[in-house]
Amino acid sequence: MRREGQGVAAELGNRSVGGYKIEDIRFVSAFDVGSNKIGKPLGEAIYEPPNTVNWTPSVSGLDVTVKESPVLDGVGIFVDNKIRPIKSRRSVRELHDSAVDELRRTKTEVLVNYLPVGSQKATEFWAEVALEARVGMVNCMPVFIASDARWAARFKKRGLPIIGDDVKGVVGATIVHRTLARLCAERGVEVTKTYQINVGGNTDFLNMKEQSRLESKRTSKTEAVQTVLADRLPADRIYVGPSDFIPYLGNTKIAFIRIEGRMFPGVPFNMEMRLEVDDKANSAGVVVDAVRYCKVAVDRKIGGPLIEASAWLMKHPPSPMSDDDARVRAEAWVRSPRTKRNKAMNRRSPQ
């Protein structure tokens, strides 16, 4: 990536983060498990089924060849026949060493993990690869790496930045739910019950029909809402999570949010809303910022979780904050002098 100017983050998917523009991001390595993607240029592989992204009919400059990744627990039972994972003859150790070599050869600086929900072992595989290859990491999935003290300590020890965990949307269900819940708290309203129900038609939602893969996802989304409430709700009074797969929706995600409570002087109220968005574009607008925050940290040789950026961009950060506070602090972090920031990070222990 090349730096231009001294811009700072002002909004998600913004024009400049620390002087880096979106067009400064270059894809130099790529990995997948789909037999119809491995060995193809990235510019072709991104249009292979079951991908349904159709924002643009073609892309240029993505000539990097997609390499093989181990499946591990990255493919659930409901999506196996859609993803058609490669039947590899290589061991996990061989694939690990190959991935490390590829990242080093291509001089990759930031690794983005976008594995399906429930991919605990596969996400840990890539965290290990990032540590050995010495690259920064953006963990978009609800497998807790940046917010896990042991993993955080390992990234800090290696001097490698990590942003995580579980990416927010630009205007996603959780950020909207958080905003409404915070509004209630700031206006002195007692929230007594709330839910967020999400449905969609892409493989992400199909994968999440497998209930055993959802524990960390529900934890991530629920905590994102709980942390902005004036008082935590009992587990039986809050539900936040994916609910069903509707094939014809494709990349469209629909969220239904309801909040019940009491206002002055104990009078009950409720609110409901419906949100419809393109699920992948909603996420991508945040990731392009996360990559650039991570790159700035690489430039400054800052290791460990990026506290402010994670709180601003992720649902389950190491140190939760209000969205306004996280945004202001993330912007201040970009502006801060390198030496001052390094000293501050050295004094901060992982949460």
Fold topology:
Blueprint: E1 30-32, H1 42-45, E2 66-68, H2 80-83, H3 92-105, E3 110-113, H4 120-133, E4 136-139, H5 149-158, E5 161-163, H6 173-186, E6 190-200, H7 203-207, H8 215-226, E7 238-245, E8 252-263, E9 267-278, H9 279-300, E10 304-305, H10 307-313, H11 323-335, H12 338-347
Parallel strand pairs: 1-2, 3-4, 4-5, 5-10, 6-7
Antiparallel strand pairs: 6-8, 8-9
Helix pairs in contact: 3-4, 6-8, 10-11
Rounded to the nearest angstrom, the radius of gyration is 20 Å
- Give a short account of the largest sheet: 4 strands, parallel
CATH fold-level label of the largest domain: Rossmann fold
What's the N-to-C terminus distance? 30 Å
Order of strands across the widest beta sheet? 3-4-5-10
Amount of beta strand: 15-25%
Uncertain segments: 6-10, 339-351
Shape: globular
Share of helical residues:
25-40%
Number of helices: 12
- On the 0 to 100 scale, the average pLDDT is 91
By DSSP, the count of extended strands is 10
Provide a concise account of the structure shown.
The chain is an alpha/beta fold. The chain has 12 helices and 10 strands.
Describe the structure.
- The protein is α/β, with parallel strands linked by helices.
- The chain has two domains: 22-168 and 281-347, NAD(P)-binding Rossmann-like Domain (Rossmann fold), CATH 3.40.50.720; 173-273, Dihydrodipicolinate Reductase, domain 2.
- 37% of the residues lie in helices and 18% in strands.
- It contains twelve helices and ten strands.
- Strands 3-4-5-10 form a four-stranded parallel sheet, sandwiched between helices. Strands 7-6-8-9 form a four-stranded mixed sheet.
- α3 packs across α4.
- The model is unreliable at 6-10 and 339-351 (pLDDT under 50).
